[in-house]
TrEMBL record:
PANTHER family: MARINER MOS1 TRANSPOSASE-LIKE PROTEIN. One of its GO terms (molecular function) is nucleic acid binding. It comes from Parnassius mnemosyne. Gene3D superfamilies: Ribonuclease H-like superfamily/Ribonuclease H. Pfam families: HTH_32 (PF13565). This is Mos1 transposase HTH domain-containing protein.
């Protein structure tokens, strides 16, 4: 037979009317029911309630939604909300389903077993043909420069570039998403922004020689699968390269970083 709350309270009331003390009541309950007995705090509280004249054994009515809110219908509804929006918050779930915060917590963590994790940045989401294009470009470059043994390899200016955006970046908390059990950890792809931005490439024609400069609009272009941008002769002289025209072009292979724009080379 299961020891219900009403059963336990009836025995506390009986001990009180029998003239026993609170400690004696606790000892009798533990001796008879062991771990199933009510806690010492609960027994003392109900002992005091009965001493003040209470005779009712059931709980008083409470405000708010009852525990029956943790139903299969609500569990399925919360699951659907999470699948539709992994960023959904407790308050949004409460406003949609009209259930209490404690019931939402039970549904999320005990029924669904979900956790809210931070998304991890990844550089680019490339298609197979984009990956193949990069491999082809590298193989062709090795052939042109005889796998690095040709002196012409010193004419290559390698580098990287970064966009400096005028925008408010997403906070760490804003990137948190709900994840079900056995799901992969979340990631998010770097996406382009439509607000004001400046492009800062940096070039290194030789080891330990680095130049950083700001490009204006339309000073770069994609040409024959290569990223090309125009540099004035003053810049070329600064990196000790020979230029015969008023301006010349330097071609660089793009490096995959989270800051580069999403275009294949």
């Amino acid at each position: 037979m299961e020891l219900t709350r009403e059963n336990s309270r009836a025995m506390i009331y009986y001990d009180l009317r029998s003239g026993l003390t609170q400690k004696q009541c606790v000892d009798r309950m533990i001796s008879a029911f062991g771990d199933e007995a009510s806690s010492k705090t609960t027994i003392y509280r109900w002992f005091a309630e009965f001493q003040r004249g209470r005779v009712k054994l059931s709980d008083d009515p409470r405000q708010g939604r009852p525990k029956t809110a943790v139903t299969q219908e609500n569990v399925d509804a919360v699951r659907k909300l999470i699948e539709e929006d992994r960023h959904v918050t407790y308050r949004e779930i409460q406003a949609t389903l009209d259930i209490g915060m404690s019931q939402i917590q039970i549904i999320l963590h005990e029924q669904l077993g979900v956790k809210k994790l931070f998304s991890r940045w990844i550089p680019h989401s490339l298609y197979e043909e984009q990956k193949a294009a990069r491999v082809t470009w590298c193989v062709r470059t090795l052939e042109i420069f005889h796998a690095g043994s040709s002196n012409a390899i010193y004419n290559i200016v390698s580098g990287d570039e970064s966009w400096i955006y005028a925008y408010e970046p997403e906070t760490k908390n804003q990137s948190r998403v709900w994840v079900f059990e056995n799901e992969l950890k979340p990631t998010k792809i770097v996406r382009s922004r439509s607000v004001a931005k400046k492009w800062w490439p940096r070039l290194s024609p030789k080891p330990a020689m680095l130049r950083l400069f700001l490009l204006r609009d339309k000073e770069r272009l994609m040409q024959n699968g290569m990223l090309t941008f125009v540099c004035h002769r003053s810049f070329l002289n600064s990196v000790k390269r020979t230029a015969t025209a008023a301006s010349s072009s330097i071609t660089t292979m793009r490096v995959l970083t989270p800051h580069t724009e999403q275009k294949s080379f």
